[in-house]
Amino acid sequence: MAEAGAPILAAEQVSLRFGGVRALTDVSFQVNRGEVFSIIGPNGAGKTSMVNCISGRYRPTEGAIRFDGADITRVPTRRRAGLGIGRTFQNLALFGHMSVLDNIMVGRHHLLRRGFLPGMIYWLGGAQDEEIAHRREVEEIIDFLEIQHIRKAPAGTLPYGLRKRVELARAVALKPRLILLDEPMAGMNLEEKEDMARYILDLNEEWGMTVLMIEHDMGVVMDISQRVMVLDFGRKIAEGTPEAVLADPHVRRAYLGEADEVVRDIDESMPV
């Protein structure tokens, strides 16, 4: 375990190549415990590639990923979930034919008892108790995300905004200490975005989850993030408080564009 006060996540000079294409180049940053940290940048900047390196879907070509002080660069995805790293996906990864309840239960698979002897005890006497405990945890998540009314509905039949909420519920069911959110607001209307932002803040403040988020809605990013990192063509070009990052001329050129009306629209979306 890392020392108290140490960052929960650290990327150290991470580079990622696919053949001759560089997705990431020497990217380093840290995420502090208990904060909401956002990664922004234009399409193709390397944001999802970075999250995939953290979750274990990709292995960096160079550099290291550390979680709680331990090098997890070569740790498989499944084991990272067991360590306390959960995630959602930009493209929804729900089981459409399964109910909302069953989709969320899938998120708790790694918490089931393992091994021969524990398994014997489980099946001889503990199965029902554990099932009840898991159901209780899932029902708490369902209540928190206000999806009681769709708990038995097949996930594939739901409107997009509700499916995004179910995806978040499944990631939360993992009981992660670090949750990776890949564009949680994408495709949502204003009301849905406001609800999702509230859920993320509550997960952070009340449930104690550290949040690393990729998001294109700059108003949301600036409202709920403590710190922001900007990627452009796979390189880090800025990092700091939302206000400092927004004021950085490199960020305005790379992410917002040089057009005055684009900058003005973003400025007007910011709280006074």
TrEMBL record:
GO cellular component: plasma membrane
InterPro entries with a match to the protein in the record: AAA+_ATPase, ABC_AA/LPS_Transport, ABC_transporter-like_ATP-bd, BCA_ABC_TP_C, P-loop_NTPase
Annotated signal sequence range: none
Sequence ranges assigned to domain ABC transporter in this UniProt record: 9-258
Keyword Transmembrane: no
Keywords, ordered alphabetically: ATP-binding, Nucleotide-binding, Transport
Lineage top rank: taxon: Bacteria
Pfam families per UniProt: ABC_tran, BCA_ABC_TP_C
A GO MF label: ATP hydrolysis activity
Name of the protein in its database record: ABC transporter ATP-binding protein
Species annotation: Siccirubricoccus deserti
